TrEMBL record:
Residues 74-270 form the Metallo-beta-lactamase domain. It comes from the Bacteria. GO terms for cellular component: cytoplasm. It holds the Pfam family Lactamase_B_2. Keywords: Hydrolase. One of its GO terms (molecular function) is N-acylphosphatidylethanolamine-specific phospholipase D activity. Counteracts the endogenous Pycsar antiviral defense system. Phosphodiesterase that enables metal-dependent hydrolysis of host cyclic nucleotide Pycsar defense signals such as cCMP and cUMP. It catalyses: 3',5'-cyclic UMP + H2O = UMP + H(+); 3',5'-cyclic CMP + H2O = CMP + H(+). This is MBL fold metallo-hydrolase. InterPro entries: Metallo-B-lactamas, NAPE-PLD, RibonucZ/Hydroxyglut_hydro.
Length: 321
C-alpha cells in the first residue's frame, strides 16, 4: 500500500457540485482577459553564455520553470518546457509566449533538476525525456522517483527527500522544505507523493523556491531556520477563493516573502498558462501593489531575461502592459 501524505495544517479544497457549477458559470463570463491578445515577449538565450562565469544568476522560463546558476553549477527548477499545460483538453492552456527562450536540446549539461511535486504543470514527461540524459542528478520529494524511473531515468541519479531533509551536493547545500499543497496525476493517486519547496545555499548566496503552496506557518519556519534569502522565486498566480488553501493570493505571496526573510522576489507561477479564472496579469499587478505597501522589493524579468545577483539595475519594467 502506497504512503499518503498530509499538510502541516488542515487544507480544505472545495470539490462540491455547487463549487464546480460556480466555476463553469464564472468561466462563461466575458470581460476578464484570461490570456494575452498576442504572444508575449521572450528573450532568446545564448547557450554559449550559459557555460561561463561563477556569478549567481536566475533565468525564468515562464510559470515555475527556472534555471539557476550558482557557484558554477546549473540547476533547473520544475522544468515544464512543453507547449501546453495539461494532457487533458478541458484543462489545457497553450503557452502565452508561443516559444521558449531556449529549447531543451540546446541547454548545456545540467548539474541537477529540483522538482517540487508531480502535477503536470511542474513534472512534464516530454521535458524530462528531452533533458534526462544531460542531467547529473534529480532531487525530488518522496514518491516522485517512481515517475522518473518509469521514464528511463537511472535510479542512482535520483534522491528522494522528506521535509527538512538537507543534502550537500557539489558544494551546495540543498534543503527540502514544506509547502501547503497536494499531489496527483490521475483519479486514484491523490496525495501518494509529497510536495515541497526548496532552499538552495551557495558560498555567497541563498535562494528560496516556494513550489506551489497556500499561505501557511511553514514560511516563517523556513525563514527562521534558513533565512535571510538573497532571492526568492515565489508562487503568485493560479489562485481562486475556492482553492485558497493550496495557492496563495498575490497579497499572501508578499506576506510569505516577509516571513521567509526574502530580499529580492521574482513572482512565478504566472505568465505562461491559464489555470485559473483571474485575468492573466492580475498576479503580478496585485503583487507589485502589495509589495509597495509592505516595502518588499519585487523584480520583473521577462521570460528568458537573466538576472545576476549584484547587478547594477535589476529589471523592473512592466513588460506585460
Amino acid at each position: 500500500m502506497k504512503s499518503k501524505y498530509y499538510n502541516q495544517i488542515p487544507t480544505p479544497m472545495s470539490t462540491s457540485f455547487a463549487s464546480l457549477a460556480s466555476m463553469i458559470k464564472e468561466y462563461s463570463r466575458t470581460g476578464v482577459q484570461r490570456k494575452p491578445d498576442q504572444a508575449i515577449p521572450v528573450r532568446v538565450m545564448d547557450a554559449a553564455a550559459l557555460t561561463e562565469g561563477e556569478a549567481t544568476q536566475v533565468t525564468w522560463f515562464g510559470h515555475s520553470a527556472s534555471l539557476i546558476q550558482i557557484d558554477g553549477k546549473r540547476l533547473l527548477l520544475d522544468p515544464m518546457l512543453g507547449e501546453t499545460s495539461s494532457p487533458f483538453p478541458i484543462f489545457n492552456s497553450k503557452r502565452y509566449s508561443g516559444r521558449l527562450p531556449i529549447e531543451p536540446e540546446q541547454l548545456p549539461p545540467i548539474d541537477a533538476i529540483l522538482l517540487s511535486h508531480n502535477h503536470y504543470d511542474h513534472l512534464h514527461h516530454g521535458s524530462i525525456m528531452k533533458l534526462k540524459d544531460k542531467v547529473e542528478h534529480f532531487f525530488v520529494p518522496l514518491g516522485v522517483a517512481d515517475y522518473l524511473i518509469r521514464w528511463g531515468v537511472e535510479p542512482h541519479k535520483i534522491s528522494e527527500h522528506n521535509w527538512w531533509d538537507e543534502v550537500e551536493y557539489m558544494g551546495l547545500k540543498l534543503a527540502c522544505t514544506p509547502a501547503r499543497h497536494f499531489s496527483g496525476r490521475g483519479l486514484f493517486d491523490r496525495d501518494q507523493s509529497l510536495w515541497c519547496s526548496w532552499v538552495i545555499e551557495g558560498a555567497e548566496h541563498k535562494i528560496f523556491f516556494s513550489g506551489d503552496s497556500g499561505y501557511a506557518p511553514h514560511f516563517k519556519e523556513v525563514g527562521a531556520k534558513y533565512g535571510p534569502f538573497d532571492l526568492t522565486l515565489m508562487e503568485c498566480g493560479q489562485y481562486d477563493e475556492r482553492w485558497s488553501s493550496i495557492h496563495m493570493s498575490p497579497e499572501e505571496t508578499v506576506q510569505a516573502q516577509l516571513d521567509v526573510q526574502g530580499g529580492l522576489m521574482i513572482p512565478i507561477h504566472w505568465g505562461a498558462f491559464t489555470l485559473a479564472l483571474h485575468a492573466w496579469t492580475d498576479p503580478v499587478e496585485r503583487a507589485l501593489k502589495a509589495a509597495s505597501q509592505q516595502n518588499v522589493r519585487v523584480i520583473t524579468p521577462q521570460i528568458g531575461e537573466t538576472v545576476t545577483l549584484g547587478m547594477e539595475d535589476y529589471p523592473t519594467a512592466a513588460w506585460w502592459r
